Sequence to fold (250 residues):
Amino acid sequence: MGTAVERFDDKARETFESVGRTEVFPGELLRHKVYTRFLHWMVALFFFLALFSGFGIYLPWLFRWFTPIFGGGALSRVMHPWFGLAFVFFFALQTLNWLTPMKWTPADSRWMRNIKNAVTGAEKLEPPDTGFFNAGQKAQFWEIVIGCIAFLITGIILWIGAGTFGRITVAVSYVLHDIFALIMLGGIFIHIYLSTIGEPGTFQSMTRGAVSEAWAWTFHPAWYKQVTGRDPRQAHDEALNRMRSARKNP
Fold:
């Protein structure tokens, strides 16, 4: 199965690279190819479409101003499950795309034990064994995988209704659907913060597909070493010395 997944993923990457491009300038590294970026933005688009249409359905007294965007309350109810299915579909493709780099490793367990320093910013550089994704990113990824499964099951139950599944099952599904939506929404807020203010330079990895070498050795040193063959701490110290030298000798 892994081989079939890899073949599918490689073919998709090749197809999208033929119609798009990723420019990598000197001092930068390729982070995400066109296919990965496409999936990311499709997931984001349909997540928010499902979220906003869902708000209008479940809390109309508070979010009734969302429903005109989708053509009114009735059309919002029709479109919401389709937005949800599209979100799950594209995230399923993203899961296949990231299955290997998202596997949990001993380095991730060490990262989680040291999460306080990562959150507070006590350490300016990530641990040297932090690879393509850190443990926090992996945890959020698998949280979304679980959320998608929950959305799919509860969403189908709500879509078909009590006539088939019974009132109690539908009532429980409503609660679970809302809980997972709130959990995922909280995770998205964290994701947006880290990809912009929290880790400057991250956002362009999903727009241009490339990141600076400084970003790589700061946030993903093991990946930097794997790609460049250079020691990330040494690269950091050399850049720091060059910067200090430039300040002394303008």
About this structure: DSSP finds twelve helices and two strands in the chain. The first strand starts at residue 28 and ends at 30.
